[in-house]
């Protein structure tokens, strides 16, 4: 006989999105049930952001050793102890895991059920031997790696982000399918750690980013020895002589690529196949659960957030969504997702960070916009730190309104923070002109770009004659 529970909120999925809703609801004393079928913390903690950024940090140190010569130090080829690096990745995960654990959430007052959830009707979810009849449901079931339909792939072992961080040896030659954020970040990291790396991409690399900014990161990867084939189709994959072989074709003809290991980084698919969505009248498609800007589904009791909602797929979006849903469920206040205020970062080196409308999007939406740029070469800090390439682009609308900002630079993910605040608050260049930037920092290039916007003022005849007139006063 199933046990029936009737909480106010039932959250399905214990990743970044679901945990944020559960913690927020419990903090206000609202009865909440959280159902998780796998590891608490979801993709970000276990197979995504945390292990990938730990790997990238190690790779950055390896590259610093390799390129130390230009700072007057003795450079060498770094000796990589991959088993030790594997252990460090899992130490970092283990260090964060208690924050997301069943124990912590139980202590917060959340009832955690460790099983798979499935809707049985419009108002009921089944999980193990429980039936949950909640006033509201929040689907936060995330996404999984999409596996492309390439002939032969069924017969060849391959890695995804779910298995990559279990490797205890450095791949000799990593073949990467897909040059999105996952493919590019991992390609550069493994190259820096000493692997040969070849990336195959059907379209252009980092096609979601501003092409001018993306090209700076891609040039850096190529200079470091990553081989990248864009606009290339993989016709088949085979295994032979202990190698993985990709049969490829592009504008130059057909060719073979051989490697020791294959990583599939070809995008994501939502985890909703086993949720029984049709039984609950929840509309969905191949990208995710269909929601309005208030994140509510076609079943008005049910919301979908994070990767499951099929929009932007970032951990900070998961927590942004959680806040919007809590605002509606707890305080009965309206809330709408505004994608234009969400920053997007790819953690290549240089990093690519963007917020607001890109140049192309703004031209399409607003027509006449101005784009101001400053090259990182203008920054004294870039010179002291030996940073060779970088750029900031600010897209400016009428009356100097900041519509969007894109940065290619080391730590661009940090530099974008102040611009995210500016875009979210509809700020203008005049407001940025007035703040004092510390010297020497990379952030100063933003200020320099803004000053360049006002530079024509110095040549303006009216301004000049006003200054001449004011000289009369001594
Ligand atoms: C390699 C990689 C690197 C990334 N790096 C970054 C980064 O640096 N910064 C960033 O912002 N984003 C990054 N992301 C994206 C980020 O990981 C995701 O956007 C984020 O994890 C989404 O959180 P979520 O809670 O929506 O889903 P998930 O984290 O996927 O959590 C969903 C949870 O639901 C559970 N679940 C699914 N179905 C059921 C069911 N039927 N019943 C019960 N439980 C269920 C799953 O087990 C899972 O634990 C990265 C992703 C990858 C793959
Ligand atoms: N830094 C970050 O915040 C970060 C890092 C990694 C991932 N993520 C998130 O995870 C999501 C998934 O990232 P992703 O890189 O896996 O997906 P993606 O969809 O961004 O990129 C996948 C790439 O694979 C290519 N591709 C697909 N099938 C192919 C095939 N058969 N052959 C060759 N190329 C093929 C696509 O053209 C695309 O460029 C992103 O939307 C991103 O938001 C974020």
**Uncertain spans:** none
Mean of all residue-level pLDDT scores: 97
Count of β-strands = 23
Strand order of the largest sheet: 4-3-2-8-18
Domain Pyridine nucleotide-disulphide oxidoreductase dimerisation: 342-449
Domain FAD/NAD(P)-binding: 8-322
Binding site for NAD(+): 178-185, 201, 267
Disulfide bonds: 44-49
Structural commentary:
The chain is α/β, with parallel strands linked by helices. 32% of the residues lie in helices and 23% in strands. The protein has a five-stranded parallel β-sheet with strand order 4-3-2-8-18. The chain has a five-stranded antiparallel β-sheet with strand order 19-20-23-22-21, with helices on both faces. The model has no long low-confidence stretch (mean pLDDT 97). The protein binds flavin-adenine dinucleotide and nicotinamide-adenine-dinucleotide (NAD). The site of nicotinamide-adenine-dinucleotide has 26 residues, from helix 6 and strand 19.
Descriptors:
alpha/beta, FAD/NAD(P)-binding domain, Enolase-like, domain 1, 3 domains, 5-stranded parallel β-sheet, 5-stranded antiparallel β-sheet, 14 helices, 32% helix, binds flavin-adenine dinucleotide, redox-active center, NAD, FAD-dependent oxidoreductase, Pyr_OxRdtase_I_AS, Pyr_nuc-diS_OxRdtase
């Amino acid at each position: 006989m199933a046990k029936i529970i009737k909480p106010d909120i039932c959250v399905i999925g214990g990743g970044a999105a679901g945990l944020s809703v559960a913690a927020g609801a419990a903090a206000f004393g609202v009865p909440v049930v959280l159902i998780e079928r796998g590891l608490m913390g979801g993709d970000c903690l276990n197979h995504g952001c945390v292990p990938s950024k730990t790997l990238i940090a190690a790779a950055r140190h390896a590259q610093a050793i390799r390129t130390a010569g230009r700072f007057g130090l003795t450079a060498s080829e770094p000796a990589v102890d991959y088993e030790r690096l594997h252990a460090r990745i899992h130490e970092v995960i283990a260090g964060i895991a208690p924050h997301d654990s069943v124990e912590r959430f139980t202590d917060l007052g959340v009832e955690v059920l460790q099983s798979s959830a499935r809707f049985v009707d419009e108002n009921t979810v089944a999980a193990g031997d429980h039936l949950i009849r909640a006033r509201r449901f929040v689907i936060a079931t995330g996404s999984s790696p999409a596996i492309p339909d390439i002939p032969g792939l069924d017969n060849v072992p391959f890695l995804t982000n779910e298995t990559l961080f279990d490797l205890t040896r450095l791949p000799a030659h990593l073949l990467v399918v897909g040059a999105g954020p996952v493919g590019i970040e991992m390609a550069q990291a493994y190259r820096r750690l000493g692997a040969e790396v070849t990336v195959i991409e059907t379209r252009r690399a980092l096609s979601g980013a501003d092409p001018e900014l993306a090209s700076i990161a891609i040039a850096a990867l190529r200079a470091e020895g990553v081989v990248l084939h864009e606009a290339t189709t993989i016709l088949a994959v085979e295994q032979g002589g202990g190698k993985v072989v990709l049969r490829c074709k592009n504008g130059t003809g057909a060719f073979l690529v051989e490697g020791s290991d294959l990583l599939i980084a070809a995008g994501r698919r939502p985890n909703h196949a086993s949720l029984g969505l049709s039984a609950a009248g929840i509309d969905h498609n191949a990208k995710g659960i269909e929601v309005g800007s208030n994140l509510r589904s076609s079943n008005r009791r049910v919301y979908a957030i994070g990767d499951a909602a099929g929009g932007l797929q970032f951990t900070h979006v998961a927590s942004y969504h959680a806040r919007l849903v809590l605002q509606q469920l707890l305080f009965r206040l309206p809330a709408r997702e505004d994608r234009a205020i969400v920053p997007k970062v790819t953690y290549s080196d240089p990093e690519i960070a963007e917020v607001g409308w890109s140049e192309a999007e703004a031209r399409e939406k607003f027509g006449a916009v101005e784009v101001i740029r400053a090259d990182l070469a203008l920054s004294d800090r870039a010179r002291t730190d030996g940073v060779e390439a970088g750029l900031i682009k600010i897209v400016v609308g009428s009356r100097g309104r900041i519509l969007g900002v894109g940065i290619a630079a080391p730590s661009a993910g940090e530099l974008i923070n102040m611009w995210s605040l500016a875009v979210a608050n509809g700020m203008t260049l005049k407001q940025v002109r007035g703040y004092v930037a510390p010297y020497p920092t990379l952030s100063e290039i933003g200020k320099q770009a803004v000053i360049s916007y006002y530079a024509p003022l110095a040549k303006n005849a009216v301004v000049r004659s006003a200054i001449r007139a004011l000289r009369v006063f001594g």
